[in-house]
Amino acid sequence: MADLPLEETVAARALGRRLTRTGTSTLTVNVGIALLARLGEPEDVPYLKILGLLRVLARPVVGALTTLDCPTAALVWLANHAESRALRHLIVAIAARDDHEARRWLINTPFDSGAVGPSTARRIAEAVELADVLRQEQFEARVVAQAGRLLSRMTGLRDYQPEILSYRQATTTYDAFVARASQLPPTLDHYALLLSVALDLHSGPSVLLDWQPRQREALLRTLEAVLSTRSWAAVAESEPEEPAESRRVHWIRRAARQPFHRATASRFRVETTVRDPAGPDTVEARLLIDGRPLVPEAFGKGPANSPEYLLDSGRLRATAEPREVQLAEAYCTEGCCGALYVTICREGDQVVWRDWRRPPTRQPQAPLAEYRFDAADYDTEIERAENDRSWAWPARNTARLITAELRDQPDLLTRWDSRVGWIGTDFHDQDSAVVSFTYWPGLAAGQRDKDGPWLQFIWSLPDDGTPPEHQAAAALRQLAEQDPKTYAQVRGGSRSHAEALGFPWPEPADPGGSA
Fold it and tell me: Is residue 270 classed as helix, strand or coil in its secondary structure?
């Protein structure tokens, strides 16, 4: 529709209005919206606003309203009423407006983490001139909180680059935010916010910003002083009944001292870091060389790999035999945008990281340097990092123990014609360990038909409050005694494979959310 020649504009506008106001299918209404995006007038804005409340029409409506240069109030109204999934497009559209109403809404509205990713957070910070806002004498505490959220989101892992490094006012905004941190009321949300900022200033991509000497360390000392006061300490000692809040409190207790720990003088350090469980981001084993985080500096397309992948597997250990190790994978997957690899080997009293592999970029990249570490210091740090489980919560530890046992005893699954897939914690419920496996008939007897039907199963193990060692042992006993296909759920393969193998194929979730 955008390129369709329109000789009769009056008729085309009338058609667009008829389709948007009376159409009864998505395609019909979308055609009407596309016509009004080219030919609409102010009288069409109220109708488009209402259509924007429907999830399937939200994006084209935002595009149409933007093209029509509608009043900012119309976009703000829609943003205040639309579903969260549509909010991201509206926020981008409002951030592009250079007016007071847009800036006021952006700085005062707390956004769900799903609506504001790293790049959107940077757009908002730039649009509202965040550093200047924080320097004003009169403003509310919620403005300080919003500034912290935006800074934290810009360091998030759900993007192809650390957006904080592209935000020109980053160091100035960090300075202004930390100076105002003590003005925040001591709530759980604010504690999690300050701790998130501190964790990134300690070992995240923000370390790579152009700081003045000792500036970053001074900010960390200020945040430490704020969170050490009695009123803030009481937040960490609270016992909320709501599961999500309880999860955050326990995360705070595990992570509270990490960003304020004075690192040793060793060149190489591993910092396993868990981000706020209220958000969707993951756990990563941050690798620091000379105090600088390696992955965002050398790769920048995704986070460092998990501690289970790098540490529990022993991949970072150095031996005389050179070994190539994947340190990080692109946010979208390696097959799309690549990964970062290094070869690790031991040469006498040194450990060497060399022969780097990373995807090509549009702009020429300087080759990555060869790093040499004192072998004794390196071994000490790897041993410390491998044995450090202070960051992990019960379900994560349960998953780790199950992984280790299945690595040693793969027959616990192969006897059931199954092979282990991934093991971890549920993305939507971090208090549940998850075991995935693939069922291939004939696998146990070595007669698997590579072209035959197969199914993927997911076995969820909610944390029952007992020690992870007990939960893992119980799960392994159940695997040994009962076919896991009788209690796990089919999650992958195909309907035809499920029918051929005698299993029900999962039906789509009810969009209405009925019980």
Answer: strand
